[in-house]
Design goal:
about 240 residues; alpha/beta; seven-stranded mixed beta sheet
Length: about 240
Amino acid sequence: MKNKEQRLIENMKMISVELTDKQVSQFIKFYEMLVEWNKVMNLTGITEYDEVVMKHFVDSLSIVKVNGFDNVTSIIDVGTGAGFPGIPLKIVFPEIKITLLDSLNKRIRFLNAVIDELELENIETIHGRAEDFSKKEDYREQYDLCVSRAVANLATLSEYCLPYVKVGGCFIPYKSGEIDEELNNSKKAVQILGGKIEEVVKFQLPDTDIGRSFVKIKKNKNTAKKYPRKAGLPAKEPL
């Protein structure tokens, strides 16, 4: 049986991500904290090591299939939950400034503990709702890339996320394999919000039967001030 380090390294190589020794130890520490804190709060239903590596760590980083990171200097992860994909992205791309946004304060406490323990720099957590912070000057249209593994449909998610992206940047949600209908239903919303669906990359997580899709949405023009609408509306009445 290979040790934890080797299994992590080999799984990451499947998506062409090479890890340094420091990154390997950060991932393993993150895993240990996730499992420990999960005993007292609900962070994830997945706790078995190999499953966490594949379904959280590799999944978070498989965005490299659709986006290069050479020109990305800032990322916001909307609805980050237990820190996915934001923390794995920070570990592998330490020079990128990352903001983690979540509406649950206990998750933010966990993320702050992880940031301290892993000695991550140039990363901040925000406790709040996506639709509130995107109205603030410090956050609106300030990011090269917005990512989200949140489960809302694409039209709703775009209304929450595109306002954070600067013109020329991208919003890339992590979606399940079957996405065609959702894509069709979101085109109008994406356009209204200043974006354009540039490409869709479908793939399977290595060694699993889990289908995933990345939707690369390019921000072409500023989002109108009235978006996002007030809490609840984007989900109830998608654009």
